[in-house]
């Protein structure tokens, strides 16, 4: 299967990695050559780590990289693709424009997919001449390690599109959960609900960052606590999702002020080196020392 991934950031490069290691030919496209190069370098670094740990052979690493072609040319990337996966930032207008542009370059039987974690796939499909060919394929970070892909069925997604989506996910060795298109789907709504309550507990002084996370890691066997996970996802991403869910589902998803303040301060989590934790070399080394952010008990506008 020939796969095109639009967007070479964390999720796009991860999807390209998963597809290429499974034997698919992949075109990885972004708007700047530097973004494309960074994406391919990220795949290479992850594969190199796999070689060091004995999970990947050097031959497998080389073969996977050889299957990935980087480009800034949308037409070149999309032409001949069996499946185009959009993985650009979580902006409705940007995603609609990207998908509509891609549709002009693909064959009639090609399938389009969005990696959105919360936006309406039905609304995205409205930008297409053939909305029945769009499906949501919500991957999880890090893509090469996470075993789940959430398949989101929009109002007009047809069975042929679903069959292609299911076959692709199966081919890369991952499991699917299938959900109807609704705000936050299943995974994002549940994950954000846990994360926002953890932030409110921190904000009102119920417990420390480390103890809140330990409660879920040790008490419920979560591999990562909700505040550390918020750092990994990105505080700005979590804020955008919460604002969207608040608009769609009501006040229970109102973003806490602690989250808003951190985002305004540029403390976005792992990607900036500080969020609820301080991060060094990709690892959370200690909770952030920002007592002014928490223990205020106010969740105003």
UniProtKB/TrEMBL annotation:
<dbReference type="InterPro" id="IPR006176">
    <property type="entry name" value="3-OHacyl-CoA_DH_NAD-bd"/>
</dbReference>
<feature type="binding site">
    <location>
        <position position="141"/>
    </location>
    <ligand>
        <name>NAD(+)</name>
    </ligand>
</feature>
<feature type="binding site">
    <location>
        <position position="90"/>
    </location>
    <ligand>
        <name>NAD(+)</name>
    </ligand>
</feature>
<dbReference type="InterPro" id="IPR008927">
    <property type="entry name" value="6-PGluconate_DH-like_C_sf"/>
</dbReference>
<feature type="binding site">
    <location>
        <begin position="7"/>
        <end position="12"/>
    </location>
    <ligand>
        <name>NAD(+)</name>
    </ligand>
</feature>
<dbReference type="GO" id="GO:0003857">
    <property type="term" value="F:(3S)-3-hydroxyacyl-CoA dehydrogenase (NAD+) activity"/>
</dbReference>
<keyword id="KW-0520">NAD</keyword>
<dbReference type="Pfam" id="PF02737">
    <property type="entry name" value="3HCDH_N"/>
</dbReference>
<feature type="binding site">
    <location>
        <position position="271"/>
    </location>
    <ligand>
        <name>NAD(+)</name>
    </ligand>
</feature>
<dbReference type="InterPro" id="IPR006108">
    <property type="entry name" value="3HC_DH_C"/>
</dbReference>
<dbReference type="Pfam" id="PF00725">
    <property type="entry name" value="3HCDH"/>
</dbReference>
<feature type="binding site">
    <location>
        <position position="117"/>
    </location>
    <ligand>
        <name>NAD(+)</name>
    </ligand>
</feature>
<dbReference type="InterPro" id="IPR013328">
    <property type="entry name" value="6PGD_dom2"/>
</dbReference>
<feature type="binding site">
    <location>
        <position position="95"/>
    </location>
    <ligand>
        <name>NAD(+)</name>
    </ligand>
</feature>
<feature type="domain" description="3-hydroxyacyl-CoA dehydrogenase C-terminal">
    <location>
        <begin position="184"/>
        <end position="279"/>
    </location>
</feature>
<feature type="domain" description="3-hydroxyacyl-CoA dehydrogenase NAD binding">
    <location>
        <begin position="3"/>
        <end position="181"/>
    </location>
</feature>
<keyword id="KW-0560">Oxidoreductase</keyword>
<dbReference type="GO" id="GO:0032787">
    <property type="term" value="P:monocarboxylic acid metabolic process"/>
</dbReference>
<dbReference type="InterPro" id="IPR022694">
    <property type="entry name" value="3-OHacyl-CoA_DH"/>
</dbReference>
<feature type="site" description="Important for catalytic activity">
    <location>
        <position position="138"/>
    </location>
</feature>
<feature type="binding site">
    <location>
        <position position="30"/>
    </location>
    <ligand>
        <name>NAD(+)</name>
    </ligand>
</feature>
<protein>
    <submittedName>
        <fullName>3-hydroxyacyl-CoA dehydrogenase family protein</fullName>
        <ecNumber>1.1.1.35</ecNumber>
    </submittedName>
</protein>
<dbReference type="InterPro" id="IPR036291">
    <property type="entry name" value="NAD(P)-bd_dom_sf"/>
</dbReference>
């Amino acid at each position: 299967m020939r796969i095109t991934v639009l967007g070479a950031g964390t999720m796009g490069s991860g999807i390209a990695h998963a597809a290429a290691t499974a034997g698919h030919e992949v075109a990885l496209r972004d708007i700047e050559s530097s973004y494309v190069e960074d994406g391919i370098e990220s795949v290479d670094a992850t594969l190199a780590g796999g070689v060091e740990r004995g999970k990947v052979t050097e031959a497998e690493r080389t073969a996977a990289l050889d299957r990935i072609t980087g480009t800034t040319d949308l037409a070149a990337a999309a032409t001949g693709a069996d499946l185009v996966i959009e993985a650009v930032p979580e902006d409705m207008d940007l995603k609609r424009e990207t998908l509509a542009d891609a549709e002009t370059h693909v064959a009639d039987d090609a399938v389009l997919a969005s990696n959105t974690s919360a936006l309406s796939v039905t609304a995205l499909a409205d930008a297409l001449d053939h909305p029945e060919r769009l499906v949501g394929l919500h991957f999880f970070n890090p893509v090469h390690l996470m075993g789940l892909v959430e398949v989101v069925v929009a109002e007009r997604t047809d069975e042929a599109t679903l069959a292609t989506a299911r076959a692709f996910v199966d081919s890369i060795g991952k499991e699917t959960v299938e959900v109807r298109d609704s705000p936050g789907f299943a995974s994002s709504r549940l994950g954000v609900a846990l994360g926002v309550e953890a932030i409110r507990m921190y904000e009102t002084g119920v417990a420390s960052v480390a103890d809140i996370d330990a409660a879920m890691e040790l008490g419920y066997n979560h591999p990562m606590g909700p505040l550390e996970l918020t750092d990994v996802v990105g505080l700005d991403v979590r804020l955008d999702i919460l604002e969207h869910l608040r608009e769609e589902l009501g006040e229970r998803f109102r973003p806490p002020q602690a989250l808003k303040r951190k985002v305004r301060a540029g403390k976005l989590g792992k990607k900036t080196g500080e969020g609820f934790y301080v991060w060094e070399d990709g690892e959370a080394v200690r909770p952030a020392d920002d007592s002014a952010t928490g223990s205020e008990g106010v969740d105003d506008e």
